[in-house]
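re the bet — no i am not wrong, look at it urself. input seq straight from the record:
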Amino acid sequence: MMKQLVFLLAVLLCSPAWANKTFYGIIMADVEDPGIGMACEHDVQKMNREFKKFAEHNNAILSIETFTGKHFSEKKLLHYLEKLNPAEDDVVFFYYSGHGQYEEGLGKVLSINGVFLPLKTIEKILDEMPAGLKFIVTDCCSQRIPMGIAMQPNTNALENADGEFNARGVLIRQKNYQRLLDYEGMLVVESSQPGQFSYAFDKGGIFTEFFLKTIHDQVEIGEASWKNILDETRRKVENFVGENLEKNQIPVSDDTNLYQKVHAGHKPGIPAGKMYEPVKN
């Protein structure tokens, strides 16, 4: 009996602070688009796997809502977001793969079946949610795509960029996945700067590939942080697109409202650190 009590106490002490809370993963992708649909479908599969890893390593309940096919609608997305009522310790992660551009007076917009949904609208809705940590990640162009221009397919140099983890200790990986959710506030990440295209190959968006690959690399070694992940992702995307496609694609993010959580021995309200220059319209 005593051994059972000791074991139970050990389990409780080792559990993350927000155990049994919910990780809300929201995926929206234009999988039926004739030009980029295949890439978007692969992005959906990859993000589903990644959300499962975040939930598993943080002992969290996982809730995934996917908006594809006949559900690829700004009205359905907004209806879901407006009704979502996460708890204070929950995490909400919104991911978009599809077409996008910048419009005067609106800033960055997601192009959903010909309807423009301003990214600021999603930011405002998530910002008003009680969830302690929110992510918005978009893999789409930041420039209007002229007729005849599509995202770049068949980039063989990206084979296995989203590969599985190498054989490292489970505890290191779990601790780092927990560390990546040990923040509060909101992080907004875009795959390209205003006026740039976001490129893809037949197995997904180039940004999404390197974003996930960098997360996988970071959680295997040292102490993972969003600053390191996004700095490295930006470097890889910029170099790869420049060297292989001779184009410009530089991811940007706004972490102004992202903070590390307060723990014993730490000063309150420590900013997460400037990652990239915030997008300015």
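see?? The longest helix spans residues 37-57. told u. also Residues 1-16, 146-151, 160-168, 264-281 have pLDDT under 50 and may be disordered. so pay up
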